[in-house]
User: Which sequence fits this backbone?
């Protein structure tokens, strides 16, 4: 009986190794992303997510994370041409996520994130057209899900970095960032939903508070 | 026993599925390893990333015919079929780099482009708005680019030894009949269009596309904005003008309206005038802009701009200085057009356009009244076939109908004419380094009843990552038109015997566009032929006996990198030109051409002050003027022109709305530039042609009300 159990366990575990299911694959890939450090680490983690994304064309989450990851790599790149290529990849994954799960609050938030990335390439020229678009997308995201901490975090960050002349500044950003941190605290762990931005939101909030104390 | 069976069953797939070890290396063209590339079996989770040496190794659990794929940012995806049987597979994979927009050669001979959409451009649309001295006038900003000649007393672009009416203006492919406000003699007016209405501007100083005709020297190609991105209202207040507008944006449509009123009386309180104004310029204007996107690949645009203005002043009377001549002008200009752009499938695009322009000018000149009513109806169609990623071929045609009504001192004239043109052109790329653009344009104008066929050709070759050379050649035709004056009647009587005016352009250009720095040098030779001439006897005798040439070098240097937050450009033009045209007795350097033109534009954003400042220095060597006392025709030169202009925009917030406070000072030093001289007919008296005022100061406030922001809060 012992041998049978052993054989069974062995067989099962080998099978699991060979064919992890989608949820397990995502959990593994996301934990690699969580612990990734440096550009090389991020590249490897995103490669893994992209492998899942291409194998699962009906799932929005891997495409979502691939777009998010490529945007992070965009900010990590120094070279203008590489930045442009990372941005194109991010946009193409975003389009896939949008096609699978249109109008979802998280997807709208991600789109705002990707559009801000493009805006950062040439804020002087693109600010007038893309700036309002980011605000619009985040507004829609909050409308769809008033408890989306990422939408509030990006809204807060966006407001914080917008010059006061254009209606931004620390004072206006503060309530958004506080709301974001509050929502992050209430958010439950779920490997099948987007979970990022908590630490960054706290960081921007601290900066914002420090500015206001001055 | 059951358990055994179960375990066997469970083991079965494991035993049957072959595990295949796949390993190898990923390299670029030159054999350098690519670390971080994604190697995978398509449709499965199996795969890995390459290590620091570009090596990879992983186990594939699927079997049979599969696709091995490698992707890496900046390279074209690599794929190959593999048979997974359990036998280890080893591959060395070479990847080809992606060719991005920045790597592709662009035909640059003769043209300066400002665009947000394309990356390899010299200017951005925002540069046009922020150039000091241009006062947010598109055409004013283009004057700071090489090839343009400074002519202080007149609006319009005089390009490379060409007259101002040799410059054609196009919006979305349609001809703009009246790009400027009505003006009085020796007092320049502004362009009628707001720089914010356009997403792209091309200033072509020669060798332009076969799409554009009826321009001997230059083409200004404007591309209008698409859907408005947001609902917004705006108010602008200047001492001499107010304007207000609103744009309503929906998902697939937008409507914009703008209205304004101008009265220069308060402006003249601040800026003292030498000109004797009887009635300072005043007027009002309105514009409407409609956009609709019926589908992803189509856009419908409708726009209309209307301006009314009147002014009255005293002009110097050269024959009797004590008796100035009164000049009164009422002008009313309407420009409207509708265009429809539609992508058809993957390979085709159709552009349709129609437009109506009307320009009515009522002039009173020393007691004589002149009325001029020009109407232009036009239609245009163009079909584009895209070939591969970078090439395209175009074919199209246009029809224009011009109706004119002249009333000069009781004499009335109603000439009308129809103009037709067809063109074919291709932008062909061979690899990403070599591009050619062959094209041909054919025209027929029933005013003169003649055909012309104009071949055009351009070539560009990318010599390095940031450098390219480009050449262009072509023929350009323009139907002769009369001056607004006593010869008008005779012109239309004789029009049928006349021929097209003709120019041949030869251009060679070298361009280097590194990060933040651009250098361009362009040499050209332009030959004019069949220019309109007249002989002023009892009746005007018109003919095409004119000719001429212009040879020169244009230099452009822009640097946004060396000094932090500072952006500057330097334009220099050298031109040697002579022509026989109009009533010139012999060929001579024309009165609008300076041998040397220099512009230095500096811009800087002061973050702490939240202020964007700009300084422009303009220099032009003296232009020829007609002195009846000189033995040689047009041998005299006016003094050189100097101007330093400054502008600053302070960005702030007014009741939570984005606000710009603008200060512009033209001619800070108050240089009393003499543009030219005019003589009495006997040569005994002359008058210097100067600006109506020395220094001019403009202060303005613009507020944008963003309605979206309000809704969010």
Assistant:
């Amino acid at each position: 009986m012992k041998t049978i159990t052993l054989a069974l366990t062995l067989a099962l575990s080998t099978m699991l190794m060979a064919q992890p299911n989608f949820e397990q694959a995502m959990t593994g890939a996301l934990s690699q992303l969580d612990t990734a450090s440096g550009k090389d680490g991020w590249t490897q983690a995103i490669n893994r997510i992209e492998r899942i994304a291409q194998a699962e064309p009906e799932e929005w989450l891997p495409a979502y994370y691939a777009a998010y990851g490529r945007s992070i790599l965009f900010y990590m790149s120094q070279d203008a041409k590489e930045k442009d290529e990372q941005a194109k990849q991010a946009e193409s994954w975003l389009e896939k996520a949008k096609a699978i799960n249109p109008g979802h609050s998280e997807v709208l938030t991600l789109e705002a994130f990707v559009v801000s990335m493009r805006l950062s390439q040439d804020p002087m020229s693109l600010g007038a057209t893309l700036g309002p678009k980011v605000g619009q997308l985040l507004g829609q995201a909050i409308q769809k899900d008033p408890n989306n901490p990422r939408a509030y975090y990006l809204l807060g960050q966006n407001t914080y970095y917008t010059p006061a002349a254009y209606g931004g500044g620390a004072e206006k950003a503060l309530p958004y960032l506080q709301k974001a941190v509050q929502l992050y605290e209430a958010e439950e762990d779920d490997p099948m939903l987007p979970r990022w931005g908590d630490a960054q939101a706290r960081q921007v909030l601290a900066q914002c508070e420090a500015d206001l104390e001055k | 026993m059951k358990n055994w069976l179960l375990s066997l069953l469970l083991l079965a797939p494991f035993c049957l599925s072959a595990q295949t070890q796949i390993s190898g290396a990923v390299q670029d063209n030159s054999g350098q390893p690519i670390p971080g590339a994604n190697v995978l079996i398509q449709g499965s989770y199996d795969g890995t990333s390459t290590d620091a040496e570009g090596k990879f190794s992983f186990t594939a659990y699927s079997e049979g015919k599969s696709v091995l794929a490698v992707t890496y940012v900046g390279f074209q995806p690599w794929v190959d079929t593999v048979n997974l049987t359990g036998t280890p597979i080893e591959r060395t994979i070479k990847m080809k780099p992606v060719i991005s927009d920045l790597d592709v050669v662009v035909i640059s001979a003769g043209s300066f482009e400002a665009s947000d959409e394309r990356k390899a451009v010299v200017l951005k649309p925002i540069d046009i708005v922020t150039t000091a001295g241009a006062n947010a006038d598109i055409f004013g900003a283009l004057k700071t680019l090489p090839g343009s000649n400074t002519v202080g007393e007149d609006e319009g672009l005089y390009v490379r030894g060409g007259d101002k009416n040799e410059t054609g203006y196009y919006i979305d492919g349609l001809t703009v009949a009246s790009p400027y406000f009505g003006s009085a003699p020796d007092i320049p007016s502004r362009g009628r269009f707001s720089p914010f209405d356009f997403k792209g501007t091309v200033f072509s100083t020669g060798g332009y596309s076969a799409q554009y005709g009826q321009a001997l020297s230059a083409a200004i190609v404007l591309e209008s904005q698409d859907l408005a991105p947001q609902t917004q209202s705006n108010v602008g207040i200047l001492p001499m003008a107010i304007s207000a507008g609103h744009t309503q944006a929906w998902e697939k449509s937008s409507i914009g309206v703008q209205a304004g009123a101008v009265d220069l009386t308060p402006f003249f309180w601040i800026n003292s005038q030498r000109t004797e104004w009887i009635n300072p310029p005043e007027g009002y204007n309105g514009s409407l802009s409609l956009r609709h996107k019926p589908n992803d690949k189509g856009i419908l645009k409708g726009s209309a701009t209307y301006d009314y203005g009147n002014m009255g002043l005293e002009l110097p009377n050269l024959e009797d200085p004590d008796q100035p001549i009164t000049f009164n002008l009422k002008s009313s200009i309407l420009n409207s057009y509708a265009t429809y752009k539609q992508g058809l499938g993957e390979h085709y695009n159709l552009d349709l356009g129609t437009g109506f322009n009307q320009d009515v000018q009522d002039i009173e000149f020393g007691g004589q009244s002149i009325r001029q009513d020009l109407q232009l109806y036009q239609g245009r169609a163009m079909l584009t076939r895209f070939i591969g990623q970078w090439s395209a071929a175009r074919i199209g045609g246009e029809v224009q109908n011009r109706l004119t009504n002249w009333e000069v001192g009781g004499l009335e004239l109603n000439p009308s004419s129809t103009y037709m043109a067809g063109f074919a052109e291709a932008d062909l790329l061979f690899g990403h380094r070599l591009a050619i653009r062959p094209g041909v344009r054919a025209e027929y104008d029933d005013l003169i009843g003649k055909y012309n066929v104009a071949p055009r050709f351009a070539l560009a070759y990318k010599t390095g990552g940031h450098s390219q050379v480009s050449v262009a050649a072509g023929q350009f035709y323009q139907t002769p038109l009369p001056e607004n004056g006593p010869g008008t009647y005779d012109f239309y009587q004789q029009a049928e015997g006349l021929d097209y005016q003709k120019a041949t352009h030869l251009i060679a250009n070298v361009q280097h566009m590194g990060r933040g720095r651009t250098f361009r040098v362009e040499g050209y030779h332009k030959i004019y032929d069949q220019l309109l001439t007249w002989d002023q006897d009892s009746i005007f005798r018109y003919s095409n006996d004119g000719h001429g040439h212009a040879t020169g070098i244009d230099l452009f240097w822009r640097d946004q990198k060396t000094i932090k937050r500072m952006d500057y450009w330097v334009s220099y033009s050298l031109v040697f030109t002579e022509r026989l045209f109009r009533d010139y007795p012999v060929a001579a350097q024309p009165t609008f051409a300076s041998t040397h033109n220099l512009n230095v534009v500096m811009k800087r954003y002061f973050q702490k002050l939240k202020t964007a400042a700009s300084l422009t220095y303009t220099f032009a060597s003296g232009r020829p003027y007609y002195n009846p006392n000189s033995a040689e025709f047009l041998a005299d030169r006016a003094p050189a022109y100097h101007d330093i202009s400054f502008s600053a925009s302070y960005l702030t917030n007014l009741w939570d709305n984005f606000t710009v406070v603008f200060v512009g000072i033209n001619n800070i030093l108050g240089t009393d530039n003499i543009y030219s001289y005019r003589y009495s007919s006997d040569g005994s008296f002359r008058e210097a042609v100067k600006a109506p005022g020395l220094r001019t100061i403009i202060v303005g406030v613009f507020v944008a009300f963003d309605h979206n922001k309000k809704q969010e809060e």
